[in-house]
Amino acid sequence: MANKNSKQKEQLTKYKIRENFRKExxxxxxxxxxxxxxxxxxxxxxxxxxxxxKTIVGSKILNGVCLDAHHIMDRHYFSNGGYVLENGITLCxxxxxxxxxxxxxxxxxxxxNMHPDDLYKMINSNFEKAIKADxxxx
Length: 138
Fold this sequence. Notes:
The chain is an alpha+beta fold. Helix content is 46%, strand content 14%. The chain is globular.
């Protein structure tokens, strides 16, 4: 029974880490896909003054628009999972799919402006900062 409780506690801790990561990334990025223009974003969300959010598996929905906290570099590069602000960027599903092409192709192909270096620049970070933040997170 103790083993089951410790596993549940571990899962709850992981859930909280992921939720904190998402919230920090979304807050920094003003709850907006960093690739959508302001005009596109207003059209997609209805740009309500008081955002309505709900959680679905792995994402947030803001006024009916899904937001993803994308890990710029895959979690396996990080000893603590890379759930740090320096490794996250807010994307809508369309731009998240574009950003994933780098990882899907094993770093062989990517869409213009979606290379991890480009994404890090958008949030004033880089892989080295993300690694250090991840190491400091434990």
